[in-house]
Amino acid sequence: MTTVGSAVRVAGVRKRYGDREVLAGVDLDVTAGTVCALLGPNGAGKTTLVRILATLLRLDGGRAEVAGFDVATQAARVRYRIGVVGQYPAVDEVLSGRQNLEMFGRLCRLTGPQARRRATDLLDTFGLADTGSRPVRAYSGGMRRRLDLAVAMILTPAVLFLDEPTVGLDPRGRNEVWQAVRDLVGAGTTVLLTTQYLDEADQLADQVCVLDAGRVLARGTPEQLKSRLGGDRIDLVVRDAVDLPAAADRLRRIGADAPTVDPDERRISVRITDRGALTEVVRGLDADGVTVADLVLRRPTLDEVFLHLTGHRSEPQEVAA
Amino acid sequence: MTTVVRTPVPGPTGRAAALLADSTTLTRRALAHWRRDPGPLVASLGFNVLFVLMFVYLFGGALQVPGGGSYPDFLMPGMFAMTMLFGVGLTAAAVAADRERGVTDRFRSMPVSPLAPLVGRAVADLLFATVTLGVMLVTALAVGWRATGGTGRVLAALGLVLLLRFALVWVGSWLGLTLTGQTALTGVQTLEFPLGFLSSAFVAPATMPGWLGTVADWNPLSATVGATRQLLGNPGWGGESWAAQHQLLLAVLWPVALTLVFLPLAVHRYRAQER
């Protein structure tokens, strides 16, 4: 059943805890060498799916293959070909970064000298060479994540699982992790990541799979998902709040459906089906005597796609790091 | 990132070698912890020594030794076994910390031999138990404890004490993999005291209410304490019950039974970690 070129192949996978069905028959196919983002709110089943693929959890139904091996019957072989990075860094806090890498290297069947060499390489690659001998509990959040990634990369994995890799990181830490992921993909690793941040999926993924309540709602490239909304959006900011009703009325006549109005930001947003509508908007507003502070023609964000598909916002919840 | 590093999947003979190698790696990890962060271990040793001093100098004067011998001679076999019992909390805390930090899951998602994390923990904890016992022996000699049995009998007694610790490693590992939260762990450490005192270590079971005395007689700790008292030539309670009459036998059977029950339970919990 393995499609040539598939690094992850999931067919009809089910998982239930008691009478709560967490995965209700999920299908997924990730092409080798690409990044796939599992996008969905808390409780959508993203982490459960990753834990099944990482051989940490038994599936109740369906089949799953990783790097060509069945996760249920060939778990030992799968473990030689995957790297797993969970929501929180799973490294030894007392040991140094180098000691962590050498220990996990030995546990991956590297010899002592191999493990030491690999530790040096990975500390360099992940920008930890200067802090390699300090205990991990003195590391910043971003440094911990990078060490966690480095541990997952000791045996070059065919498939790397990243479960919400940037939860709780500041923008700088997030950028560090994103850059590290791009480098790994450049070197040929397949990445399956889960996220509730839509911009993260947009930044990293070749393919997005939208998961909600244990089911796949949609899949495709970020661009395809955005065009499923059927067109572009116009964002308009008026200079004076008094002009809002007139401008909204104008956009209602031009747009494909009702515009959304944000009075605090004096912003109106509307979906259009024809890019020529922009000229029409400018002419119309000019005729109405509305002063425009900002006017943008843009593709819809994944946030809007998500709202459209699930009927609710993605609402990432704050999770303590 | 241009270097690709892969290792082969070991065959059946390789698996035993892998278990040995991985257990060694994980034992060395525990040793590295002790070097980097010796605080908890020093505290544990200090507590045990303090416990002995407290009994000898605070309670000792008020207590009657069976047969009229010296109080340290009576006390120390009980103390040796008690310090092994206190190890349950140490094992459980270390195992639980790995589980809660996700390190256990990392092991499970890696090509780590499935028994190695438990074996590595057991070896490390037995090494520390040996150090603890050494410190306890020095303390014992300092407070006037003496053994009258020969060297062979003393070694056999210490072996029985460590055998109890070996069995308790699996109890601690199982607890650490099963219990969630700091409260549960504190509960384990608190329960060590009543479980320890409900034995023949400090008080004669014959002086307890009937059913409680029976429980104390059959406490695995009582068997180890009674057997070590016999082997070391230290005064004990004696007693008429079957358990009191067969302490040497029970001092071997109890740890074996505990291991046979809790080792498989711990392995099962390790494999079936589902959060």
Biggest sheet: strand arrangement of chain A: 6-7-8-3-9-10
The number of distinct β-strands of chain B equals 0
Q: Taking Cα atoms only, what radius of gyration of chain A do you get, to the nearest Å?
A: 23 Å
Total count of strands of chain A: 14
Could you characterize the architecture of this molecule?
The complex is a heterodimer of chains A (about 325) and B (about 280). Helix content of chain A is about 35%, strand content about 25%. Chain A has about 325 residues and is α/β, with parallel strands linked by helices. Mean pLDDT of chain A is about 90; it is low at about 315-320. Chain A is elongated. Chain A has two domains: about 5-225, P-loop containing nucleotide triphosphate hydrolases (Rossmann fold), CATH 3.40.50; about 230-300, Alpha-Beta Plaits, CATH 3.30.70.100. In chain A, helix 9 (about 245-255) packs antiparallel against helix 10 (about 275-290). Chain B has one domain (about 15-60, about 70-270). In chain B, helix 3 runs parallel beside helix 6. Chain B is mostly helical and about 280 residues long. Chain B contains eleven helices and no strands. The mean pLDDT of chain B is about 90. The chains are: A alpha/beta (about 325), B mainly alpha (about 280). Chains A and B meet through helix 2, helix 3, helix 4 and helix 6 of A and helix 1 and helix 4 of B.
Write a concise keyword list for the protein shown above:
A: 321 residues, alpha/beta, Rossmann fold, Alpha-Beta Plaits, 2 domains, four-stranded antiparallel beta sheet, 14 strands, 35% helix, disordered C terminus, B: 275 residues, elongated
